[in-house]
Write a structure and sequence with these properties.
CATH class of the largest domain: Alpha Beta
Largest sheet: 8 strands, mixed
Number of helices: 20
Strand content: 15-25%
Helix content: 40-55%
Number of domains: 3
Strand order of the largest sheet: 3-4-2-5-10-9-7-8
Length: 506
C-alpha cells in the first residue's frame, strides 16, 4: 500500500528530483485526492493544492472532486498568494461551473499579478456567459514584463476558448504567389523530379522547393514533401518586437483576409526555431505587440501557424495555413511508434521507381501502419500487396489504413522470420527497426542476420529489396556477408535521425 504521508512529506521537504518523484507517485495513486483534501485546512494547503492539480489531470480524480469544490473555494481568499493561485488551477481543472461567481469575485480583488493568469485561465476552462463577460471586460495590459505578458496571454487564451474565433473558409489566392514546399532532407532531388514529371513548375531555393502558383491545391499532386508554407518576411531582426512590426507593416492580416471567406480573427500559433531561444517568452512578447483583434494567441487550437526560423540574428517568417487541409495522407487514420512519415515513403519510392513494375508482387515484412504499401500503390499499381507485422496493434492499424486508402492488401499478424511464400515476391520494401524507439542494436544484429538469410528464399529472380535502417553499418556488413549486392545507398534525415535506404539485389 502506498504511504501517502511519507510521499507528501518528501514532496514538501525533498530536493527537486525527490519532489517530482513524489508528486508523480501521488498523482498516480487511486484515492489520493481524499488524503490531499484533508490537508486543505492546515498550513500545508498550498502543497496539497499543487498535488491535487497534478492528480486532477486524470478524469477519475476530476469526477471524485466534483462535489468538493466548496471546500476549495475559500482558499481563493487565502493570505498566501500561491495558495490562491493553486486553488484557481484546481477549480478550473475540476470543471464545475458553479464556482464561476467565486472565481470572478476573486479576480476582481486579486492584486498579485502572478496569481491573476490562473484565475483567468480557470474561467476560460469553465465557460458560460458569466465567465465570458468577466474575461471580455478585462483590458489587455500594456507592458513587456513577465507578469504582464502572462496576464495578456491568459486573457487571449481564455477568450479563444470562451468564444472561439472563426477564420472562415480558405478560398484561394487572389494572385500567383510563392509557396515553399518543405522536402525530406536528403531527398530534395526526388521532389524536383516528381514535379517535372507532373509538369509543375518549381525551383530549388536553398533547402526548400519553391513554386509560384495561384492554386495551392494543385501542389498537392506532389507527394514527396512534408508541408507547404507561404514565405512572408526574410532578414527580419531576430527579436519578437521586430517580427511583430514586420507582420503589421507587411499587411499579413489583409493578405490572410484575401484568402478566406468571412475572416474576423485568426487563432494563431507562433513556432520559433533557433539556438538558445526561450520560445514561450518570445511568443508572449510577439503577441503583446501584434493586433489582438487580428491574431489570437491560441497555441493548442489554431488555424494559422507562423513559422519563425532564427539564424545569425536574422529571422525568416513563413505561414502554414491549417484552414486548408492536406488531402494526400487522409488514409492515415492512425500510426504506430517509429512509423515512417508518408512524405518520406513517397519520396523514397519515387526515387527508386525505375526498379518497380505494375506486374510485380510487393511485400512489406515490417509493415507497421501500412504506409510503404499504400504509397507504393499510389505511385503505381502492382499485381499483389502483402504486409506482415509481429505487433497485433500494428496489424490492426495497417488493415484499417489500407482499407481507408482503397488498397486490397493481404495483411498478417506474424513474425516475418517464419514467413514462407509459394509464389515469391518481386519487391521487398521495409522500414526496419532502428534500435531507437523500437528494438536495440543487439536485437537488430540477430534480426538483420535472420532476414538477410531468409529473403533470398522468397525473392523472385530479378527482384530487389529496399530497406531503411539507421543501424546502417551493421546492415551493410551483414548484407555483404550474406552475398547481397548493395546496388545503392541513399542517406536522408527524418525524425531527428539520419537513416539510409539500401537497395539490395542478388
Amino acid at each position: 500500500m502506498t504511504d501517502l504521508q511519507a510521499l507528501f512529506t518528501q514532496y514538501i521537504e525533498g530536493n527537486a528530483k525527490e519532489q517530482e518523484r513524489a508528486a508523480k507517485q501521488i498523482a498516480q495513486t487511486n484515492g489520493a485526492q481524499a488524503f490531499l483534501m484533508e490537508k486543505l485546512s492546515g498550513a500545508q494547503a498550498r502543497a496539497a493544492l499543487a498535488l491535487l492539480g497534478r492528480a486532477a489531470r486524470r478524469e477519475s480524480v476530476r469526477w471524485a472532486l466534483m462535489d468538493k469544490t466548496q471546500e476549495i473555494v475559500p482558499l481563493l481568499a487565502s493570505e498566501d498568494a500561491k495558495t490562491r493561485k493553486n486553488a484557481a488551477i484546481v477549480l478550473g481543472q475540476i470543471g464545475q461551473r458553479a464556482v464561476v461567481p467565486a472565481l470572478c469575485g476573486a479576480l476582481s480583488k486579486e492584486t498579485q499579478q502572478f496569481v491573476r493568469p490562473s484565475l483567468i485561465l480557470a474561467l476560460g476552462q469553465l465557460g458560460g456567459t458569466e465567465a465570458q463577460q468577466a474575461v471580455k471586460a478585462l483590458p489587455l495590459p500594456e507592458g513587456t514584463d513577465k507578469n504582464t505578458l502572462a496576464e495578456r496571454d491568459a486573457i487571449q487564451k481564455a477568450l479563444s476558448r470562451l468564444a472561439p474565433q472563426k477564420s472562415g473558409t480558405f478560398t484561394g489566392f487572389a494572385a500567383p504567389r510563392p509557396v515553399w514546399l518543405m522536402p525530406v532532407n536528403g531527398l530534395i532531388g526526388s521532389l524536383l523530379a516528381e514535379a517535372r514529371a507532373k509538369h509543375i513548375e518549381v525551383k530549388q531555393k536553398g533547402s526548400v522547393v519553391e513554386a509560384v502558383t495561384r492554386s495551392l491545391p494543385s501542389l498537392y499532386a506532389l507527394r514527396g514533401f512534408y508541408e507547404a508554407l507561404l514565405p512572408f518576411a526574410v532578414g527580419v531582426k531576430a527579436e519578437p518586437e521586430a517580427l511583430a512590426e514586420a507582420v503589421e507593416a507587411g499587411g499579413l492580416y489583409a493578405l490572410l483576409c484575401q484568402m478566406h471567406d468571412g475572416s474576423v480573427a485568426f487563432p494563431t500559433r507562433l513556432e520559433v526555431r533557433g539556438p538558445g531561444i526561450d520560445r514561450a517568452a518570445f511568443a508572449s512578447k510577439f503577441f503583446a505587440r501584434v493586433n489582438g483583434a487580428h491574431f489570437v494567441n491560441s497555441p493548442s487550437s489554431y488555424d494559422i501557424e507562423l513559422r519563425c526560423w532564427i539564424k545569425n540574428g536574422q529571422a525568416t517568417l513563413s505561414v502554414r495555413l491549417h484552414t486548408f487541409q492536406d488531402p494526400r495522407f487522409a488514409y492515415r487514420l492512425e500510426s504506430v511508434p517509429a512509423s515512417m512519415h508518408p512524405a518520406v515513403a513517397a519520396a523514397l519510392l519515387y526515387d527508386h521507381r525505375r526498379y518497380m513494375k505494375q506486374t510485380h508482387t510487393v511485400l512489406d515484412p515490417f509493415c507497421g501502419a501500412g504506409t510503404l504499401l499504400i504509397e507504393r500503390k499510389k505511385l503505381m499499381g502492382a499485381k499483389a500487396f502483402t504486409g506482415l507485422d509481429i505487433s497485433p496493434k500494428a496489424f490492426s492499424i495497417a488493415r484499417a489504413n489500407c482499407h481507408e486508402a482503397g488498397l486490397h492488401a493481404k495483411v498478417f499478424n506474424r513474425d516475418c522470420r517464419g514467413f514462407h511464400s509459394d509464389f515469391g515476391y518481386d519487391e521487398i520494401l521495409c522500414n526496419l527497426p532502428f534500435g531507437h524507439r523500437v528494438g536495440s542494436h543487439e536485437q537488430n544484429e540477430r534480426l538483420y542476420d535472420d532476414i538477410l538469410q531468409q529473403w533470398p528464399k522468397i525473392l523472385r529472380p530479378g527482384g530487389f529489396v529496399l530497406a531503411v535502417t539507421n543501424d546502417k553499418q551493421l546492415f551493410s556488413a551483414l548484407a555483404t556477408r550474406h552475398g547481397w549486392k548493395i546496388a545503392s545507398q541513399m542517406a536522408f534525415s527524418a525524425g531527428g535521425l539520419s537513416p539510409t535506404a539500401f537497395l539490395l539485389q542478388r
